[in-house]
Task: inverse folding
């Protein structure tokens, strides 16, 4: 089968950073679905895993953690899907990735593709939808039934992939007042279109900008951009007994003591946790993706596809990585078809 792999961890400008390769077609076992990949999306995690380091793979490693496709075979323990089902999912970071013609995924972390979306628009959703949903509703404890209506959430990095779906979930299901950061006119227009009530610039003084809008503090903060850089501002901006969730790993120590007097919560979200550790509630991601599909088909949520870069091949994938590393992506980058 066709795939895009790497053996050396190189700058994305190097043609060998990602290259086209033929690999054996995998076989489904246990709870596995064998999926014929129709479209993939590219995420910052792809670039972080691929980033230059002194490591060499004995065989080509396949990256990629977002896909939509069709089930072509199932393992003997599968009960949630059948051959022919269109699916979308983000996979597991501990298994070969989705940048291949065929891919294995555990049924418990896959969902039925939204019927109203084509494969490209569906592929833009899984990783970011799982991340935003878990961050907002599982980690911060916001009610998905609107019981926290009127409370405020600051979303740092509103125009990126996770921010784009996070805004919608916070507004449509959480019924929160959403303040999203956006540093350019086009990203500001994007987050407002998705439902943000207010916008501020994360390059500036965040607490001061919030006060200008009339917010002395905010109840919840979702950090989807540079935890180290924004931690001090988040500690100042969060309300007493408020909650902060970040998805971006820190490079240095965080001054967690700054939250003590407020009895404020700081929590991480990592969407691969359930699959990585085989947690008893792994199937929650299957249910979550099915609910996202239902909301999409009901017109309550929309896809976050920003740009379709064409066919799934090494050249286009290197281009996608380079765009992401540039740090000004709006929405999701998708590739479609081999």
Result:
């Amino acid at each position: 089968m066709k795939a895009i792999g790497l053996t050396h961890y190189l700058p994305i400008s190097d043609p060998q950073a990602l290259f086209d390769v033929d690999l054996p077609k995998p076989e489904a076992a246990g709870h596995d679905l064998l999926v014929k990949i129709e479209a993939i999306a590219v995420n910052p995690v792809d670039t972080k895993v691929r980033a230059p380091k002194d490591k060499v793979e004995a065989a080509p490693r396949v990256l990629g953690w977002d896909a939509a496709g069709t089930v072509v075979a199932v393992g003997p323990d599968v009960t949630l899907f059948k051959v022919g089902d269109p699916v979308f999912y983000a996979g597991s970071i501990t298994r070969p990735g989705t940048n291949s013609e065929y891919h294995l995924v555990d049924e418990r972390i896959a969902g039925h593709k939204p019927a109203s979306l084509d494969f490209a628009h569906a592929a833009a959703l899984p990783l970011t939808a799982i991340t935003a949903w878990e961050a907002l509703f599982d980690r911060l404890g916001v009610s998905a039934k609107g019981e926290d209506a009127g409370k405020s959430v600051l979303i740092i990095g509103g125009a990126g992939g996770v921010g784009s779906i996070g805004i919608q979930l916070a507004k449509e299901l959480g019924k929160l007042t959403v303040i999203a950061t956006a540093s350019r006119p086009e990203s500001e227009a994007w987050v407002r279109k998705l439902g943000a009530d207010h916008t501020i610039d994360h390059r500036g003084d965040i607490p001061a900008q919030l006060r200008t809008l009339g917010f002395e503090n905010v109840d919840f903060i979702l950090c989807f951009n540079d935890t180290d850089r924004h931690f001090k501002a988040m500690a100042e901006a969060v309300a007493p007994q408020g909650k902060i969730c970040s998805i971006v790993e820190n490079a240095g120590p965080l001054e967690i003591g700054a939250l003590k007097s407020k009895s404020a919560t700081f929590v991480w979200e990592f969407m691969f946790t359930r699959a990585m550790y085989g947690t008893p509630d792994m199937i929650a991601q299957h249910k979550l993706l099915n609910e996202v599909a239902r909301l999409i088909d009901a017109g309550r949520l929309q896809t976050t596809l920003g740009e379709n870069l064409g066919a799934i091949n090494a050249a286009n994938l290197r281009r996608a990585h380079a765009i992401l590393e540039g740090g000004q992506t709006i929405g999701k980058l998708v590739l479609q078809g081999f």
